[in-house]
Specification:
Layout: E1 2-7, E2 10-13, E3 18-26, E4 30-39, E5 46-51, E6 57-59, E7 67-72, E8 77-82, E9 91-101, E10 104-109, E11 113-118
Parallel strand pairs: 2-11
Antiparallel strand pairs: 1-3, 3-8, 4-5, 4-9, 5-6, 7-8, 9-10, 9-11
Length: 119
């Protein structure tokens, strides 16, 4: 199994910054893609950013130029640096990864961390 623990959420004013972290632990062989999703109030969950094991990144259009995803493979940790935050970035942010456990790849999710941007 894989446990993902997020930290770094909170309340910030519009234009401010936050850095989310997510550390993976457990009995896994490898962690492949890591990603951040978010779910705004009353809306569906959406993919915000992803990063491959080799460091290839992708972003949803609305955060390009403002958010940066990175990872530390030695620490099994993924980060999301969020700058120039807007009220529409308010959401519960979830960390996710694809990990191989006992030879079987599968998706795993964190419990979520609230990000609230006040205007």
């Amino acid at each position: 199994q894989v446990q993902l623990v997020e930290s770094g959420g909170g309340l910030v004013q519009a234009g401010g910054s936050l850095r989310l972290s997510c550390a993976a632990s457990g009995r896994f062989w490898t962690i492949n893609t890591m990603a951040w999703y978010r779910q705004p109030p009353g809306k569906q969950r959406e993919l915000v950013a992803g990063i491959s094991k080799d460091g290839v990144t992708s972003y949803v259009e609305s955060v390009k130029g403002r958010f940066t995803i990175s990872r530390d493979n030695a620490k099994n940790t993924v980060y999301l640096q969020m700058n120039s935050l807007k009220s529409e970035d308010t959401a519960v942010y979830y960390c996710a990864c694809e990990a191989t456990v006992a030879g079987i790849p599968g998706p795993y999710w964190g419990q979520g961390t609230q990000v609230t941007v006040s205007s």
